[in-house]
Amino acid sequence: MGAAYLQIADLLQRYGDKVVSDIDELVIERGEVLAVIGPNGAGKSTLLKLIAQLEKPVSGTFSFNGGVRDELDIRRRLAMVFQEPLLFSTTVFDNIAYGLKVRKVAKVEIASRVRGVAGMLGVSHLLGRDAGNLSGGEAQRVSLARALVLKPELLLLDEPMASLDPPTKKALIEDLQEVLDRLDVTVVYVTHQRTEAIMIADRIAVMDEGRIVQVGAAQEVMNCPVNEMVADLVGVENILKGRVTGARDGGTVVEVEGKEIEVAGGESLSGKVWLFVRPENVSIVADDGAEHQAGMRNRFEGEITKLYDMGPFSRAVVECGFVLVALVTKRSANEMGLRVGVRVWASFDSTGAHVVSRE
Amino acid sequence: MDLIFEGLKQAIILILSGDPLVVEATLRSLQTSGTAVIISIILGVPLGFLLALTRFPGRNLMVSLVNAGMGLPPVVVGLFVAIFLWRSGALGFLGLMYSIPAIIIAQVIIALPLVTGVIISAIQQLNPKIRLQALALGATKAQMLITLIKEARITALVAVIAGFGAIISEVGAVMMVGGNISGQTRVLTTAIVEQVGRGDFSRAIALSLILLTITFAATYALTHYQQRGTALWAQRTSK
What we know:
The complex is a heterodimer of chains A (about 350) and B (about 240). Chain A has about 350 residues and is α+β, with helices and mostly antiparallel strands. Chain A is built from ten helices and 19 strands. Chain B is about 80% helix and about 0% strand. The interface of A and B includes residues 79 and 88 of A.
C-alpha cells in the first residue's frame, strides 16, 4: 500500500439535471480495500460504473498507474461484481471462463485458472451445473469467481452481499477476505453495511449526494466522523448539539443542555458544535460507582428510559439532562439489574467523544 | 370422403415418385422463404438491437412501424411491392416483376417486422445489467452483443421460425408479385391454388401435405425450444 493505483480528478456526472457524482479528487492506493458507504442515492454505484467505464461522465479524468488509458484497456484491467449475480445462461464453468474467453486466453490455461479460482471460492463441485440452477449464495460465489479468475488489478464490488441471508453472507465475507489477502488486488467495495466495511476495508470513503464527504482509515471514520450525516451512518448514536465554552487540559469544554462535557482535541473550535459519542464508549453503573469511574471526566446521573435486548448486548437509553445511549453486555446489564426506571451513572472518557463544528 | 382418401393415396404416390411439379414447387418454396428469412435475420437482428438498446430521435416511430408491420396484411404488402415493381412503377426499370427476387422482396417485408419485433422484445426482457456485466468482465462491444444474442437465443429462434412459418404459407403477396409461372416462380401455396382451380385434387393434397409437414416441423421446433426454456425456468423457480 502507499502508491496511488487510481487517481480520479474533477469527476462530474449528471442524470438530467441531477448531479449524481461530483468528486474533486479520490486516490485509491495500490493493494488497498476501500469501502464506499453512504445512504441510498449517494452515488456509490454510479462511482463504480464510472470507474469501470460503463458510463461516460460529463467530465473528469481517471489516471491508472499514472497514465490515462483507453476504455477497453481500462475495462480489461478490472472486474466488477454487482449486487445480483448476473450469471449467463450457461454452465458454471463457462460463466467463470467468460472473461478469459473474451480475452482469447488458451483453452488449457482457461481450464486450469477456472479450476483454481473455483477451488478458492468453494464452487468446484458446481462447475458442470447450469448456472440458473444455483442458490443465491452459490450464484454470488460463482459471480466472484468469474471476476477473480481474471486476476484483475482492480476489483469493483457493488454490494455483492446485499441479497444474501446472514449466515451465507458471513461465510462468503470470510472466504472473500481470505482470497483478497492472498491476491494482489486493489478493491473498491460499495456497501450499505458499516459492519461489512469495517471487517473488510483498510479505508472507508463516505459519500452523500454524489460527493465524497470523508475518506480515511476505517477506525478514523468510525470514531471521528466529520459531520452529523457521517456520524449517523457509521453508528454514532449519541449526536448532541453543544457549544464550546472553553479549553481545559489540552482539550475542549462543550456545554450540552447546561452540562459541561470535556472532549480531547477540538482546540480550534468555537461556537456551535456537534458532539459525537459512540454508544460502546458510554459506561453505565447502577450505583454511585465513584471508585470504578474515578478516571472518567464526563459522569452524568440519570434514569434508564428504554432498554432494548440486542442478543449479547443491551442498549440502554439514559435521560441525564440530555439523552445518552449506551451499549452494555447482557451479562453486565443483568448483574447491575438494569431496567427501565433504574437510576444510573452514565459516563465516557474525553477521548471517547469527538467534536466538530456546527456553524 | 372418397375424394379425400383417393386424393391422399394419389398424393403419397406423387410424393414418393418425385412428381416434377411437386418437387419444383417444394424446392422453390424452400429457396424463396429460406432466402427471405436469412435476409430478414441479417437486417432484423441489428435493427432489433439498435431499437432495443439505443435511444435516438425517431426511435419510437420506428418501433411503432415495426409493431404495425407485424400485423401487416400480406396481400397489401404484395399490392405495394407490385405497384413499385410494375413496368411503369418506381422500380420498374429493375425488371423484377414476376421473378424470384420479387417474391423474396415481398416475403422480407412480411418477415422483417416479425423478426425485428421479437428481437426487440427478447433483448428488452433481459436484465439490463447483463450488458454492463459483460462489459465489466472485459468484453468488447461486439462480444457483448453476441453475449446478449446468446442470452436471448430461445426467443430469437422463435422469431426466426415464426418468420419462416409466416412466409412459407403465404399466398396472396406471392401470387401477386411472382405470378405462379411454371418452372420459374411457382411455389407450394400458389401451386395448390392452381391445382384446385384445375380440379387436380391429388396434386393439391400432395402439395398441401408437404406444406403442412414443413410448417409442422417449424412449429414443432418452435414448441420444442420454447418448452426447453420453460423447463429451465421451472427448474430455477423450484430451487
